[in-house]
């Protein structure tokens, strides 16, 4: 096996277009799978040498979070936890303190597990991935990336450079709830959901818009907010008063 | 495939080693540098026995490749005592009998040191959550947590 640490996106995509190449970000899933011989890559492409994968930038439109930024770094960011606490809480549930020192949003998504903690959080926040490939760069909403367990909508040579998280809407907020028999640090949860709510504002206590995601419930994260909402109760909660309890729809 | 020539810093000393791409940082510390304090427990990042600091960040050295340490700074249990003088955490672990077989102890000490560097006055809950990635099959954790709290108090001068 070869180990390569390119410093440019172009060099990385060229390496990844080759046979048997895998992306190495934090390695907390990849190295375990290599050791158990689930995966035997010919080339490991460490993307952490590419500046854009390792930094968080903030502007008026929101955050750009490098795909290899660690969970610990997300938590330590001065404003991210205030703007998107649910997303950061979700990412911080990936493994132990030690795993937090390495695990990343990009790795958590591209590992392709339906039980990935940070993925419902990213989807509910409206995260969009910036994907680099041999033909250039494209963007894709996070919800469209994992097609089935271990199956991604990325083609040969493509990798996620960063995620765009929009600026938090006025009066917006988010939270992440994980239902799990053991805590903390135990992987393999039973189910999760993340409501990104617009809490009380304007007239009385009404929910303006709501996206709710449930992870680890089926082969890929299910919609129960925004788009597929009406049938599943997410949008039914929008426009309701809090006292009516949108949570009775939870788990549909 | 030629081996990688890695130049790094371990416990403040510049070191070099040769490693294969597949070798983990734990393998390199133990087999190339004879620093056998970090232990191989689960090899999957669950037990924390291989905990080290990489650029000050607590990681499982079994989940880091040796080649990734190039140009970085690694701190292991071997760098904790200053000569014959034990670190307060090490002393408190002895005083509280916070170990039995000792396999998990180097990892727990490194992890606890990282916690106290970040938070000199942790609550018991914070200690337990921080150390949740360090498994111990002997002590039941209570003595470990007490030793860490006591060391933290001493280090604060309380």
Question: What can you tell me about this protein's structure?
Answer:
- Chain A contains 10 helices and 14 strands.
- In chain A, α5 runs antiparallel to α8.
- In chain A, the strands form 4 sheets. Chain A has a 5-stranded antiparallel beta sheet with strand order 4-5-10-6-7. Chain A has a 4-stranded antiparallel beta sheet with strand order 11-12-13-14, with helices on one face. In chain A, strands 1-3-2 form a 3-stranded parallel beta sheet, covered by helices on one side.
- Chain A has 2 domains: 2-46 and 56-166, Uridine Diphospho-n-acetylenolpyruvylglucosamine Reductase, domain 3; 210-252, no CATH class.
- Chain A has 252 residues and is an alpha+beta fold.
- Chain A is 22% helix and 24% strand.
- Helices cover 33% and strands 16% of the residues of chain B.
- The longest helix of chain B has 15 residues, at 142-156.
- Chain B has 2 domains: 4-79, Beta-grasp domain (Ubiquitin-like (UB roll), Roll), CATH 3.10.20; 88-156, [2Fe-2S]-binding domain (DNA polymerase, domain 1, Orthogonal Bundle).
- In chain B, a hairpin with a 2-residue loop joins β1 and β2.
- A 5-stranded mixed beta sheet of chain B has the order 2-1-5-3-4, sandwiched between helices.
- The radius of gyration of chain B is 16 Å and the shape is globular.
- In chain B, α2 (88-95) packs across α5 (142-156).
- Chain B is an alpha+beta fold.
- Chains A and B meet through α2 and α6 of A and β4 and α3 of B.
Keywords:
heterodimer; A: 252 residues; alpha+beta; Uridine Diphospho-n-acetylenolpyruvylglucosamine Reductase, domain 3; 5-stranded antiparallel β-sheet; 4-stranded antiparallel β-sheet; 22% helix; 24% strand; globular; disordered C terminus; B: 158 residues; Ubiquitin-like (UB roll); DNA polymerase, domain 1; 2 domains; 5-stranded mixed β-sheet; 5 helices; 5 strands; 16% strand
């Amino acid at each position: 096996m070869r180990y390569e640490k390119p410093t440019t996106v172009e060099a990385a995509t060229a390496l990844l277009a080759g046979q048997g190449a895998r992306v190495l970000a934090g390695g907390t899933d990849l190295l375990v799978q290599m050791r158990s011989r689930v995966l035997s890559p010919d080339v490991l492409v460490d993307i952490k040498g590419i500046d854009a994968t390792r930094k968080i930038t903030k502007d008026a439109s929101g955050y750009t979070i490098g795909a290899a930024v660690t969970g610990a770094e997300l938590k330590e960011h001065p404003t991210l936890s205030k703007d998107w606490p649910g997303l950061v809480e979700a990412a911080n549930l990936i493994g132990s303190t030690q795993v937090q020192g390495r695990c990343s949003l990009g790795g958590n998504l591209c590992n392709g597990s339906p039980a990935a903690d940070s993925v419902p959080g990213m989807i509910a926040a409206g995260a969009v991935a910036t994907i680099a490939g041999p033909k250039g760069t494209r963007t894709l909403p996070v919800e469209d990336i994992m097609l089935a367990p271990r199956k991604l909508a990325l083609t040969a040579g493509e990798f996620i450079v960063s995620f765009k998280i929009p600026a938090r809407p006025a009066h917006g907020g988010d939270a992440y709830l994980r239902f799990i028999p053991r805590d903390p640090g135990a992987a393999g949860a039973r189910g999760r959901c993340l409501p990104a709510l617009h809490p009380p504002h304007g007239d009385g206590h009404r929910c303006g818009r709501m996206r709710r995601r449930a992870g680890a419930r089926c082969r890929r994260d299910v919609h129960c907010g925004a788009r597929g909402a009406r049938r599943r109760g997410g949008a039914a909660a929008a426009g309701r008063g809090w006292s009516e309890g949108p949570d009775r729809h939870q788990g549909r | 495939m030629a081996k990688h020539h890695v130049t790094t810093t371990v416990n403040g000393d510049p070191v070099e080693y040769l490693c294969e791409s597949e070798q983990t940082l734990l393998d390199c510390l133990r087999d190339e540098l004879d620093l056998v304090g970090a232990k191989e427990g689960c090899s999957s990042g669950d037990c924390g026995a291989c905990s080290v600091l990489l650029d000050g960040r607590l990681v499982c050295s079994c989940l880091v490749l040796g080649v990734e340490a190039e140009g970085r700074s690694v701190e292991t249990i071997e760098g904790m005592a200053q000569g014959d003088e034990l670190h307060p955490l090490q002393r408190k672990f002895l005083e509280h009998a916070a170990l039995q077989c000792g396999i998990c102890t180097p990892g727990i000490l490194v992890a606890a040191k990282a916690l106290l560097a970040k938070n000199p006055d942790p609550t018991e809950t914070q200690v337990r959550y921080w150390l949740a990635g360090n498994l111990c099959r002997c002590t039941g954790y209570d003595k470990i947590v007490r030793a860490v709290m006591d060391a933290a108090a001493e280090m604060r001068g309380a």
